[in-house]
Amino acid sequence: MYNPKSHNAEEFICHEEVLASLDYAEKNKDNVDVIDKILAKARLKKGLTHREAAVLLDCTIPEKNEEIFALAREIKNDYYGNRIVLFAPLYLSNYCVNGCVYCPYHLKNKHIPRVKLTQEQIRRETEALQDLGHKRIAIEAGEDPVNNPIEYILESIKTIYSVKHKNGAIRRVNVNIAATTVENYKKLHEAGIGTYILFQETYNKETYERLHPTGPKHNYKYHTEAMDRAMEAGIDDVSLGVLFGLELFRYEFSALLMHAEHLEAAFGVGPHAISVPRIKKADDINPDDFDNGIDEDTFAKIVACIRIAVPYTGMIISTRESAECRARLLNLGVSQISGGSKTSVGGYFNPAPEDEDSAQFDVSDRRPLDDVIRWLMEMGYLPSFCTSCYRQGRTGDRFMEICKSQQIHNFCQPNAVMTLKEYLEDYATDATKAVGEKLLPVEIAKIKDDKIRKIVEENLVKIHNGERDFKF
């Protein structure tokens, strides 16, 4: 029986409820009265249920779809403005004991080079990331209790935070590692992580078990309930995601929103962010072997409908996607992107030759971070390296309160301006700096509070003179 407050995975992600929702959406995809009622509720900008959102996703009426896309753009602007947060993944190790059939790190793959960074190598990777201008990273590691125990992850986090190179510093370490125990989540929380990230890959239990035939990740219940254990341990910023292409996208869409509803119902705090990666080629993995791929138009509508259904959440698109695709999705709801990313272990300081690559997937957007920053600004976006909410204690329900009330602008706009100024001073090419210096006055003018605007203007002078890390 479906119960969003339950801590049992098969009750808060109820297979029968997903199927009933898909059936309801199919029957009402051309029902103007139902769609108009859902859109009227959506315009309140407080979100939708998974069933209501499923109807919008299935809607086939062209003029209603235009309304859906326009509303997604409006909600994105109301909640997040034109700010785009930048981050990069840092792969620590690709040793893994699981048998996931869509990931080249699977245990049976004897072709891919296995690499695990030492703490000294992690220092060099961190310096290389800082030299690009990054302040926020997501560390990644395969599941291997011998090679990648929690102690290794914790030591790596400590190392990353300790590195202060020139004007650089990693101010927020998000963690994307396998489902673990409450005790280990407490250790991660005490280590000062930002967001805990775990992708479900697929919410369909039968498909999940088939795609994870061996290893600890085979346990659907343990994996799906991981966010509950993280919340219990005190990690109140968590990030969800599915890997589109493994299962029918409508099923994944509804179940993903059900997971968000569960976190709200059970903990009062929904997902800090939602990622929507699509399966990509990598080493011995061919995406054509999976028959549930989605085209660009479907992908865009999924993003728009998630933005409408969960207006407060951050939405993430990585360098898996092309620049053209990312540009389209930024307009429909995405608020965070990676830039200058390497998905191989040790890929920033000393990239391996292509035939010795340890990458988890092929990167589509291979542009350097500086090109991405300039591209964003030329499209009218404000690149942000802000990490202040996490460091000022605005996490979990405290973050959600100011985000849902659309007061987050009071913090994010000035912080984005100041961190962009840091980037322009320390890392930008002349071409990027020229674009940025024209953008800054425009963005400063958007700060409504006169006192805050004055402080920001004073801080920009201090940044130009060498001071760093101002935050609201």
Coarse structural class: alpha/beta
β-strand number: 11
% residues in beta strands: 5-15%
- Report mean pLDDT, rounded to a whole number: 94
CATH top level of the largest domain? Answer: Alpha Beta
The general outline is globular
Count up the helices: 20
Q: What is the assigned CATH homologous superfamily of the largest domain?
A: Aldolase class I
Task: Determine the N-to-C terminus distance.
Answer: 45 Å
Task: Offer a few descriptive terms.
TIM Barrel; globular; two-stranded antiparallel sheet; 20 helices; alpha/beta; nine-stranded parallel β-sheet; 472 residues
Provide structural commentary:
This protein is of the alpha/beta class and 472 residues long. It folds into 2 domains: 78-388, Aldolase class I (TIM Barrel); 409-464, no CATH class. Helices cover 47% and strands 10% of the residues. The protein is built from 20 helices and 11 strands. It has helices spanning 9-12, 15-28, 32-42, 50-58, 62-80, 119-132, 150-162, 182-190, 205-211, 220-224, 226-232, 249-267, 296-309, 323-330, 369-378, 388-391, 396-404, 409-426, 430-444, 450-464, and strands spanning 83-93, 136-141, 164-165, 168-169, 172-176, 196-197, 238-241, 273-275, 314-317, 336-338, 382-384. The strands form 2 sheets. Strands 1, 2, 5, 6, 7, 8, 9, 10 and 11 form a 9-stranded parallel β-sheet that branches. A two-stranded antiparallel sheet has the order 3-4. A hairpin with a 2-residue loop joins strand 3 and strand 4. The radius of gyration is 21 Å and the shape is globular.
